[in-house]
Design a protein that fits this description.
Largest sheet: none
Number of helices: 10
Radius of gyration: 22 Å
Order of helices and strands: HHHHHHHHHH
CATH architecture of the largest domain: Orthogonal Bundle
Number of strands: 0
Shape: elongated
Length: 226
């Protein structure tokens, strides 16, 4: 039998990929991979199910694309901030600011989906995380580690282990959002609100400065100048 040609959708429908990915991120973050439904994603994106499968041949491939959409965007923004010409402490603070700007301006589902994927590793692990982490997270980790090491060598930072400092810094930021449901109970405020995110940004910045930055030594006064 002759092969059936793949019917190309109308030009307007060819621009539906961003809407599909946006709807997929929301659905996967809300329902998890197992509970997410392709028809619900198509409906939320305003497309028919055939067009959804035109772009993404399976639920698993759509899930991978949703994760990659988030991580590639985060990677691009963070590396741009880290590569800007500024002091070593300024680079670390730019990283923190970029993280919280990402949380502030994107849907909570963006960070939530990545956190869910990291936490579900094990018996139900996704085959995608290893490749995506190598491509998008590891370059950022190596850049941060290099900044900390250079700061220690320059005498600007305390002699902390660069690897573990990066883990600790990320833990301070990620745990706030991972624990958002408990924080609501404990504090009666919304961790995802603008005020909540801004407050967390300020406190993380203070902790990093106190833990990492060496105090600037005051020049000794000459005899008779006191």
């Amino acid at each position: 039998m002759p092969k059936t040609a793949l019917i190309r959708p109308p030009e307007k429908a060819l621009n539906a990929r961003p809407a599909i990915l946006g709807a997929a991120i929301e659905e996967f973050a809300e329902q998890g991979f197992a509970g997410a439904r392709m028809d619900s994603i198509a409906k939320a994106a305003g497309v028919n199910i055939a067009l959804l499968f035109y772009y993404f041949k399976s639920k698993d491939l759509l899930y991978k694309a949703a994760l990659e959409e988030i991580l590639s965007s985060w990677n691009s923004r963070v590396l741009t901030a880290l590569e800007a010409p500024q002091s070593l402490p300024g680079k670390l603070l730019a990283y923190v600011n970029t993280y919280f700007e990402f949380a502030l301006h994107e849907s909570p589902s963006w960070l939530r989906l990545v956190h869910q994927e990291v936490l579900r590793q094990g018996r139900c692990s996704s085959p995608h995380l290893t490749k995506l982490a190598q491509r998008y997270i590891k370059p950022v980790h190596l850049a941060l580690r290099k900044i900390v090491r250079e700061g220690i060598e320059a005498g600007v930072f305390h002699a902390l282990d660069p690897e573990h400092f990066v883990y600790s810094m990320n833990g301070m930021m990620n745990s706030y959002f991972v624990s958002s449901a408990v924080i609501r109970i404990l504090s009666s405020h919304d961790p995802w609100s603008k005020n909540g995110i801004e407050m967390r940004r300020r406190e993380v910045t203070k902790l990093i400065q106190l833990a990492l930055l060496k105090p600037v030594a005051k020049p000794r006064s000459k005899p008779g100048e006191e």
